[in-house]
Amino acid sequence: MLEKYKVAFICVHNSCRSQIAEALAKHTASDVFEAYSAGTETKPQINQDAVRIIKQLYNIDMEEEQFSKLIADIPQPDIVITMGCNVECPYLPCKYREDWGLDDPTGKSDEEFVKTAKTIEENILELKKRILERSIKALR
Are 102 and 83 in contact (CB under 8 A)? Predict the structure, then answer.
């Protein structure tokens, strides 16, 4: 068995989009890669709207295993996915990086959280497919 790639989902506060990505990646792609999330700052808790929506949509309790972490708290990733910080995205050395350009749903409607979660899920499944197909040149 090949060693799994380590994928880090990064945003500034590590409380909403990157946490959703970590939860959904562990749920849908743990057979292909290890998922982590982190930020340059932390929050005392994961965004409670995100926790509630992910529980409703996927029956995943993000607070069971996840908490807001700093970049220094996670293993060195092979792949870095930035969520779309709209500010200076944190830099983390890696073999491959991409930005998903997602707006932060914090403070917005449940519909925005659902839309963000569904987009993240689609992106994760696409990333999983590209890893399996070995179509990311930097990882060959």
Answer: yes
pLDDT one-digit tens code per residue, 51-86 = 999 999 999 999 999 999 999 999 999 999 999 866
- Segment (H or E) for 118: helix 110-132
* Domains: count for the chain: 1
Cα(first)–Cα(last) distance of the chain, in Å? 16
- The tokens of 1 are what? 């068995």
The CA distance from 55 to 112, in Å, is 15
Listed residue (11, 10, 34, 16) closest to 117, CA to CA: 16
User: Which domain, by its residues, includes 30?
Assistant: 5-139
